[in-house]
Amino acid sequence: MGTLYLVRHGQASFGADDYDQLSERGQAQALRLGEYWRERGLKFDAVYTGTLKRHSQTLAGIVQGLGEGSDLPVQNRPGLNEYDSKALLHAIHPAPLPKPDTPELYRHHFRLLCDALSQWMGGTISPAGMPDWNGFSDGVHQVLEEVRHRHSGQNVLLVSSGGPISTAMGQVLGTAPEVTIALNMRLRNIAVTEFSISPKRLMLQSFNTLNHLDSDQHRSWITSA
């Protein structure tokens, strides 16, 4: 039985004009995860990722940390790309929002985002430029099915974002939409979620773990946005 390692990208640039760019901390987080796996002799048979910059940058850091022998072909899948949070927020709050640069504005931002996600998943809003919820979910499902059929008995690395990873969790566990949203909001940067891969199904092994940052040197590196 193989294992699918789903990794949320490292810390991006929340609040900046271009969120889709790892911060210095995000780059260090990705490198550290690769080093952690190298120390434990983990090797991958296949790699899947979305097509966003923060996905490719995270993967590059992991590969650097893994070292020699980790140059595997990368399967780029748009179905692993994140939803457009700006489009979601605009669909329920057309007026410009203040920059979330205080704790209260940060909480307000994510309360609105959770509301928008709920309405999108329920089919009551159609954010501009985005697929409907069923289309987004189907994109994630197609990648999971590809992994299940092609890589039983292998170790597979998948680098994506909180939305697709929580959607994958919801599909494997059969959760209600509100639970999928809650899982999404709890995913931390560079966190690892593991599924067992068998020809019949994917099964949850772990969720949102940061064992690679569990040291006095690295605990301050834990981030969420």
From TrEMBL:
The keyword Hydrolase applies. Pfam families: His_Phos_1. It comes from the Bacteria. SMART domains: PGAM. Keywords: Hydrolase. This is Histidine phosphatase family protein. It comes from Comamonas guangdongensis.
